Amino acid sequence: MPSFARLARNLAAAATLFLLALPAFAQDDDGLLPVTEAFHLTADPSQPGTAKLHWRIAPDYYLYRGRIKIKAADPSAVTLGQPALPDGIKKHDDYLGDVEIYHGDVEATVPYTLANAANTTLALDVQYQGCHEVEPKICYPPHTEHLTLTVGGASTIPTAAAPAANGAALLGAPASAPGTDAAALPADQAFRFEALAKDGKTLVLRWTMPKDYYLYRDKTQVTVTSPTGVTAGEPDWPSGVAHHDEHVGDTIVYFDQVEVPVPLKGVTDPSAKVELDVAYQGCQENGICYPVMTRHLSADLASGAVQVGTPAPAPATNEPADVAPTPPPAHAGAVDEAHVGLFAALGLALLGGLVLNLMPCVLPVLSLKAITVLESGESPHAARRHALWYTAGVMVAFAALGLVVVGIRAAGHGVQWGAQFQQPLAVGLLVYVMLAVGLSMSGVFEIGGSLGNVGSGLASRSGPSGDFFTGVLAVVVASPCTAPFMGSAIAFAFAAPLGVAFLVFLALGLGLALPFLLIGFVPTVARLLPRPGRWMETLKQALAFPMYLTAVWLLWVLTKQRGADASALVLAGGVLLAMALWWYGRRRGGLSWIFSAILGLGAAFALYMVHGLPASSGSSNATAADGSVPYSPAKLAELRAAGTPVLVDMTADWCITCKANERAVLDTQAFRDLLKRTGTVYMKGDWTDVNATIGAFLEQYHSVGVPLYVVYPKGGGDGRKLSTVLTYDRVAQALGDAAR
């Protein structure tokens, strides 16, 4: 018990530290200057043979001395000497190591020799990088300016600090009197675009918009023009703002600033130079929409530098460029799902947690609890103790899960319910847990007091610690399931303040634990249970088999994610784990635990090997067998433009509810006949593995996870969400309405 009390105190301390850290995650990026304003570069070419470069660094910003690189645009026309830079302030950077930085004003002197003395033009490429040193602490990508100087010309270096400007002027917008609307900015000022190459295989794109300007997510396209064989992968968009546009429809937009990693596939030479075109479009809120702009990028993968061309508008089309869009929602990310209020969300969460007990993913773990309740016999005290400790485990697990999910959300990252099952390591670890619990129930081993606070065996152990960790395990395996009533409640939690979201997750936990609370505290319910006897040991061993079946199901999920090699590794690791537990259960000699530990390390190494395996490509092709087409935003837009009704099904192999819906409705001949009769295209998105495009679709419809079913009508208009649990009649009615 003392060790369990220490564990409880540690969990409470960890939760407190997490709460204190959340404000740092939730900082906004408002007020950051564009890179050319934060580090204002001017030049003095008045003295032939020497050029002076001057940076005026804004307050709370600093420039790296070692990241300043000055090159001749045409090395055949001019030879540059070694630039002279003053010493900077020494600083230790977490990423760059020991560096020197500058604040305020700094000047570099660059000697040069012209190949043709009669030439009066000096062209320089000046690259630099700096950071914002107060909250929000960010570092800009390396930025390159192209200077064309007239030898002997006038200096543009200011002689005194520039006067303070208002926020609009700093962003390049014309200053306007209060209460008046500023004119629309030029495209390159409204959507400041930067890029850098990262790790030789990822391109990071960044757009910075002044206040009241926003960028469309689905109007952005990245195309690699050279070298042959290199392609752009799916952009990893962060969470955006749901927006309904009368011309575009439901979409996602970004205000202020957005940074998007784009993987480069097929890169074989880490020193290669990649040429790309980036097309994007955005609007002024309650104002004009700009034509699609295209930037040409030249990325040097070795140095990370990216040359960005000037924005070029797309060819003229018949579509107007100055369409006034519908304003986005007043509260970014607000839940529109029936405008759920706090008390309604708590009620839905309680009901959702209660129904979660009936989901197939939870039933195997509940068999453990059934055993402990039966073992308590008719002792009221024992029944209450089991119920309270099990409830404590459920509540602590839900609270921790809620803190992590909402904390990640507050930091500006997208996250959905059950997303941990997209990680092969998490799936493999759960295979081990289910196998260990099953072996314990089969009598292969028992956890002794010395190991009473570790691993999965706690779930099968009697006493408070066993009850507590049975509750924790129930939450872990319940997380890929979405029960009725849960969707609106969790969506509300994702958009609500931290304290309110915390209450919603606690209500989910209370709903999950409610049946056993009733058994423990309502004698009438407890008396319905059979009396304990010798038959219970047989039942306990029989209930181990659902655990083994759960492990088999998880292995199947892992095969979908990483292929047969991953399953073979985890199977081999499972054998090592079983041998370790068997040997430990025999207790031969005082050092038996050493051999068990060695075998356990072998099982852990098998999981480590799974981490390095590439994603399987098999699941995306499997959808063709049921007559569906793979989901893509472009294909959906094409079908909608053609006036075709569409049913979009977002699913995952680890989603039990999804599989139940497929078995009951979507994989039946009646459903296929319904598709033909209504002319509906069945589109399927597979979220078994991480997929930024599907994650963005879930975000667009405020869905906390899968399954998500959206029906798009034949004549256009908004998509209609269907319920989480499908029936044929509901689907038939929805598709019939969409086809009219």
Topology (elements, then pairings):
Blueprint: H1 2-25, H2 35-38, E1 39-44, E2 50-57, E3 61-64, E4 69-72, E5 78-80, E6 89-93, E7 97-102, E8 105-114, E9 121-128, E10 130-132, E11 138-139, E12 143-150, H3 167-170, H4 187-190, E13 192-198, E14 202-208, E15 213-216, E16 221-226, E17 231-232, E18 241-245, E19 249-255, E20 257-265, E21 273-280, E22 282-284, E23 293-300, E24 306-308, E25 312-313, H5 342-356, H6 363-375, H7 380-410, H8 424-441, H9 457-460, H10 464-478, H11 486-495, H12 498-521, H13 523-526, H14 535-542, H15 544-586, H16 592-611, H17 618-621, E26 629-630, H18 633-641, E27 646-651, H19 656-666, H20 669-678, E28 681-686, H21 692-700, E29 708-712, E30 720-721, H22 728-739
Parallel strand pairs: 26-28, 27-28
Antiparallel strand pairs: 1-2, 2-8, 3-7, 3-10, 4-9, 5-8, 6-7, 9-12, 10-11, 13-14, 14-20, 15-19, 15-22, 16-21, 17-20, 18-19, 21-23, 23-24, 23-25, 27-29, 29-30
Helix pairs in contact: 1-7, 5-11, 5-12, 6-10, 7-10, 7-12, 8-15, 8-16, 11-12, 15-16, 20-22
Describe this structure in words.
The chain is α+β, with helices and mostly antiparallel strands and 740 residues long. Helix content is 40%, strand content 21%. The chain is built from 22 helices and 30 strands. Strands 6-7-3-10-11 form a five-stranded antiparallel β-sheet, with no helix packed on it. Strands 16, 21, 23, 24 and 25 form a five-stranded antiparallel β-sheet that branches. A hairpin with a 3-residue loop joins β18 and β19 (249-255). α7 packs antiparallel against α12, α8 (424-441) packs across α15 and α20 (669-678) packs parallel to α22 (728-739). It is globular, with a radius of gyration of 31 Å. Residues 1-30, 160-182, 313-339, 448-461 and 618-623 have low confidence and may be disordered.
